[in-house]
Write a structure and sequence with these properties.
The chain has helices at about 90-105, 115-125, and strands at about 65-70, 80-85, 110. The chain has about 160 residues and is α/β, with parallel strands linked by helices. The longest helix is centred in the middle third of the chain and has 13 residues, at about 90-105. Mean pLDDT is about 80; it is low at about 115-125.
């Protein structure tokens, strides 16, 4: 039997009023149609909507999430059953070491870095210079001429 999807529970009147966020709050009004569960109104959070016990607390990929703070935390993790989340308190140097080790163990990392940080991390692992260090020619920046032109030398004449 296929399990029905959980509805996206919305806070009462959040779709109508800009000042009311969508985050769920229990409707408490005396005449509230949502509290009275009238048809046409969004569903309330109830016990029956819970997820199955075997999938509860798992990462959306269906893997068990592990918080990693040091290299020894990676030992004994199975790539088919675990996904790694790097601690937010890590510095870049230690993060690079952990990313390299996770890559060797074929583990998926939930938060490797994003945007410029992700590219800098990848380039640092490869050993190239980071992209933000290279000067790019753009508006308002003076162009640097190369030193390939030969400078005139003073030749001594035989006179």
């Amino acid at each position: 039997m296929a399990e029905a999807r959980k509805p996206r529970f919305k806070r009462q009147e959040s779709w109508r009023l800009k000042r009311v966020p969508e985050a769920w709050r229990r409707p408490r009004g005396v005449t509230s149609r949502m509290r009275k569960e009238k048809s046409g109104w969004p569903p309330k959070v109830k016990v029956g909507y819970g997820s199955s016990a075997d999938s509860r607390g798992l990462h959306p990929r269906g893997l068990s999430e592990r918080l990693v703070e040091k290299v020894s935390d990676l030992d004994g993790l199975d790539p088919k059953g675990h996904i790694v989340r790097l601690s937010r308190r890590l510095g870049e140097r230690k993060r690079l070491v952990l990313l390299e080790k996770a890559k060797q163990l074929n583990l998926h990392v939930a938060n490797p870095g994003r945007g410029e940080a992700g590219t800098a991390v990848e380039e640092a692992v490869v050993g190239e210079a980071p992209a933000h260090r290279e000067k790019k020619e753009g508006k308002g920046q003076p162009t640097v001429e190369s030193e390939t032109e030969e400078t005139p030398t003073i030749e001594e004449s035989d006179s």
